[in-house]
């Protein structure tokens, strides 16, 4: 079972104080720590587990600059066999559609039974690269995947739906699955894994190697552009009522009456 995993090198923003940069279209990243996208972390773990059970290979691929190699090294340390980094100044400011085209240019020449990636990226949250890539490769896909059971030529997957519901699908392989967090428990990176990862070669491909043109990538090859990035203004603030239960109940009743609700 040959599995390709698409990963992204993203800033960790959960506990960071974010600021909009001078362009007004991005955040300041100079002081942020970068790591593998959380959702992609689960996709990688699922790929390694599949390889451990059924044999085959795990190839990780990313679109990013030199610093994204740290994420690829982490993937190699966690069990991936090979890594590819697609990088070129012309790739900058590519939207989800252009990124999918870049990934497609490399993946179409690989042998794969399965393509895994995170359900979304922690930096833009677009959740579009997976479905677009699957359409370009002309293979079936499923998003928000929480469970994968592989059979001969098919996969049975559980998808997370709204309201706590799940649906189960049987999909022919090869296929692409966008993985949701919680599908597994990602393993820690071992010292031995890190040492082996540092010795492995990462294949680097530029625009000339992809068969694409400048018109296919970057802003020219994108369908969407960011016009403005901003922090939503605070329009309403919660009011905390203090006092005894009786006093609070009276205040609530007064508020409801004053707004004409009763």
Structure, explained:
With 262 residues, this protein is of the alpha/beta class. The chain has one domain: HUPs (Rossmann fold, 3-Layer(aba) Sandwich). Helices cover 28% and strands 24% of the residues. It has a 9-stranded mixed sheet, with helices on both faces. The longest helix is centred in the first third of the chain and has 17 residues, at 38-54. It is globular, with a radius of gyration of 22 Å.
Percent helix among the residues? 25-40%
CATH class equals Alpha Beta
Radius of gyration: 22 Å
Spatial separation of the terminal alpha carbons: 64 Å
Task: Fill in the keyword field for this structure.
262 residues, Rossmann fold, 7 helices
């Amino acid at each position: 079972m040959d599995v390709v995993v698409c990963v992204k090198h993203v800033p960790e923003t959960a506990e960071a104080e974010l600021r909009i940069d001078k362009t007004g279209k991005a955040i300041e990243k100079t002081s942020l720590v970068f790591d593998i996208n959380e959702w992609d972390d689960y996709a990688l773990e699922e790929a390694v587990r599949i390889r451990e059970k059924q044999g085959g290979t795990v190839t990780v691929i990313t679109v990013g600059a030199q610093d994204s190699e740290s994420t690829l090294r982490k993937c190699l340390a966690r069990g991936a066999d090979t890594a590819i980094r697609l990088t070129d100044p012309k790739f900058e400011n590519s939207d989800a559609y252009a990124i999918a085209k870049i990934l497609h240019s490399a993946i179409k020449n690989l042998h794969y039974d399965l393509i895994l990636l995170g359900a979304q990226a922690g930096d833009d949250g677009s959740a579009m690269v997976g479905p677009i890539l699957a359409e370009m490769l002309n293979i079936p896909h499923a998003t928000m995947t929480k469970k994968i059971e592989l059979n001969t030529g098919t996969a049975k997957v559980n998808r997370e739906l709204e309201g706590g519901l799940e649906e189960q699908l049987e999909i022919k392989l090869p296929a692409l699955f966008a993985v949701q967090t919680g599908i597994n428990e990602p393993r820690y990176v071992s010292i031995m894994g890190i040492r082996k990862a540092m010795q492995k070669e990462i294949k680097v491909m530029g625009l000339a190697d992809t068969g694409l043109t400048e018109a296919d990538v970057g802003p020219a090859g994108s369908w969407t552009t960011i016009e403005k990035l901003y922090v939503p203004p605070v329009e309403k603030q919660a009011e905390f009522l203090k006092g005894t239960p009786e006093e609070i109940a009276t205040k609530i009743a007064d508020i409801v009456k004053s707004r004409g609700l009763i």
